[in-house]
């Protein structure tokens, strides 16, 4: 079974119908059919929440929560081991602290990280990454 870790970029692309949303939707379809499992750190989910609230207001956060509750995503708590691993990664690579949690979770689960965030280029030699396309389905059909 395929294992995917979603970072905030992937979940936001899906929720906001941004470029790459089709690829995230495909991962969701695989998870629903039992061909894949989806994982996410609560740190990265928190990134989604603050981004949505900052851009669209608190009412949009409620819509986000209702939206993602229907998805078969397993969320991971932050524990001492993950904090230490993320801190170590952040100390050695130019990525955000929140992104370090996504990378650490992908390492831990031996999963593919789904993202369009270019910061992950710094750690692409450490984890497998499925890069979200910058094209929308409308652009691809032109």
Walkthrough of the structure:
The structure is a single chain. With 142 residues, the chain is of the alpha/beta class. The protein has a single domain, classed as 3-Layer(aba) Sandwich (Rossmann fold). Helices cover 55% and strands 16% of the residues. Strands 3-2-1-4-5 form a 5-stranded parallel β-sheet, with helices on both faces. The radius of gyration is 15 Å and the shape is globular.
Which secondary structure elements does this structure contain, and how are they paired or packed?
Elements: E1 2-6, H1 8-15, H2 21-32, E2 36-41, H3 42-56, H4 58-69, E3 73-76, H5 80-92, H6 97-109, E4 112-115, E5 128-131, H7 137-141
Write a concise keyword list for the protein shown above.
Rossmann fold; 142 residues; 7 helices; alpha/beta
| pLDDT averaged residue by residue | 93
Number of domains: 1
**Secondary-structure arrangement, i.e. CATH architecture:** 3-Layer(aba) Sandwich
- Structural class, please? alpha/beta
Distance between the termini: 34 Å
Q: What is the number of E strands?
A: 5
State the helicity in percent bands: 40-55%
CATH class: Alpha Beta
As a whole number of angstroms, the C-alpha radius of gyration is: 15 Å
- In the sheet with the most strands, the strands line up as 3-2-1-4-5
Order of helices and strands: EHHEHHEHHEEH
Secondary structure tally, helices: 7
| Major pleated sheet | 5 strands, parallel
Into which percentage range does the β-strand content fall?
A: 15-25%
* Low-confidence segments: 136-142
CATH topology: Rossmann fold
Q: How would you describe the shape?
A: globular
